[in-house]
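step=encode ok
step=design start
structure_in=
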């Protein structure tokens, strides 16, 4: 599959994550930092609220990326699988696969360098719920995951990172704790009260741009 030209697509929406690290995951700060455990297990949940790849409109498609990575994530050798909502049409699913595999360039091209075992994409009834202090994702019989904002001094405002660099997240991120129960026969994840966060995102083929 040939790589497409850099500026022929864009996408924006909600991105949240949970892994088995204690808050905050050192690997989230930088892949060269040691994660809490010998294997980092977690997921990214993605809601495409808008976006286009060629003729494919991405709005309304929910996706989960499940992964296992070594304690020092920059060492590579990640195992990863993408699960796309079964509401997606074939052209939408193909476009999302191309984005998340790095074929289309952009931030996921950087992450793809660390993946040595990319399992075939699956489809399933992915459901993401987005309320102000909590984000959750379910796949019946496979996944129940959620992240809850932590309390700050000002209870009316979330605790956030500001101006933090990350390949796929916006520079402003809400800090949370998360839980996950996941078992698909390939990956098994069981987290309670561990690293979580969320942000808005805006991706293009050549760079990450802030949402809004």
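sequence_out=
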């Amino acid at each position: 599959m040939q790589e497409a030209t850099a500026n022929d697509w864009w996408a924006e929406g909600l991105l949240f994550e949970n892994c088995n690290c204690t808050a905050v995951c050192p690997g989230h700060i930088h892949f060269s930092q040691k994660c809490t455990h010998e294997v980092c297990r977690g997921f990214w949940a993605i809601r495409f609220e808008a976006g286009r790849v060629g003729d494919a409109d991405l709005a309304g498609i929910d996706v989960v990326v499940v992964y296992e990575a070594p304690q020092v994530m920059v060492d590579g050798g990640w195992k990863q699988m993408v699960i796309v909502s079964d509401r997606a049409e074939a052209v939408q699913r193909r476009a999302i696969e191309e984005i998340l595999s790095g074929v289309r360039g952009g931030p996921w091209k950087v992450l793809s360098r660390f993946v040595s075992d990319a399992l075939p994409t699956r489809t399933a009834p992915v459901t993401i719920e987005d309320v102000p202090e909590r984000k959750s994702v379910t796949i019946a019989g496979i996944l129940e995951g959620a992240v809850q904002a932590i309390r700050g001094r000002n209870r009316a405002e979330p605790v956030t990172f500001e101006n933090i660099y990350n390949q796929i997240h916006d520079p402003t991120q809400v800090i949370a704790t998360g839980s996950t129960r996941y078992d698909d026969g390939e990956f098994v994840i069981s987290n309670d009260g561990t690293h979580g966060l969320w942000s808005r995102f805006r991706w293009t083929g050549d760079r990450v741009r802030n949402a809004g």
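step=design ok
step=annotate ok -> Residues 1-6, 207-212 have pLDDT under 50 and may be disordered.
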